[in-house]
Amino acid sequence: MDDFERSVEAVLFAADEPLTREDIEAHVGEGDVKAALDALAAHYENRGVRLVQHGKRWHFETAADLAHLLRRTREEQRRLSRAATETLAIIAYHEPVTRAEIEAIRGVQISKGTLDVLMAAEWIRTAGRRETPGRPLQYATTKDFLTHFGLGSRRDLPGIDDLKAAGLLDPLDEEAMQLALEEAGADTDDDMDELESEREED
């Protein structure tokens, strides 16, 4: 490992949040940051920690098969209510989406507390106001949402076949989920690219 790679490694190790290549370049100066990142990712591939990329940001994380070693025996896992889980899924597949649209898809009203829980977890954010009467707030997912669920981008969200194979889709929910995914399919690839660009700019 040369001195430039060591510099990139040190910057990433000390960072308290994932960094883009531009962030890293601001610390280490001129050099082939991409090559250094690729070399470091390969170096850490089979180690206890790994260098991973989510979206356009890089950070170190514990190897998935060793994560259980770091959990405290009394740690309480963050568990979402069914309403919060459904709301998060709707936002992820349809963003940006208003509260009224979420309620229309779920078929029931959502409490303000449900959105507050997701905001507190930093998995969703406000994404401006819809240019319609009343100018309602819109909601979208965050970079922390991608990182927490190990997604590179929204394109990595599972489809209905993936959810069924993982046993995460109740047969009674399958028809509703299929409808939701079909509606989400209204987004074109260009729309998805634009949303990803906006996320990176934020």
From TrEMBL:
Full protein name: SMC-Scp complex subunit ScpB
Alphabetically ordered keywords of this record: Cell cycle, Cell division, Chromosome partition, Cytoplasm
Region (Disordered): 182-202
The keyword Oxidoreductase appears for this protein: no
GO biological process, one term: cell division
InterPro entries hit by this protein: ScpB_csome_segregation, WH-like_DNA-bd_sf, WH_DNA-bd_sf
Organism: Sphingomicrobium sediminis
Highest taxon, organism lineage: Bacteria
NCBIfam families attached to this UniProt entry: SMC-Scp complex subunit ScpB
Keyword Cell cycle appears in the UniProt entry: yes
Biased composition (Acidic residues): 184-202
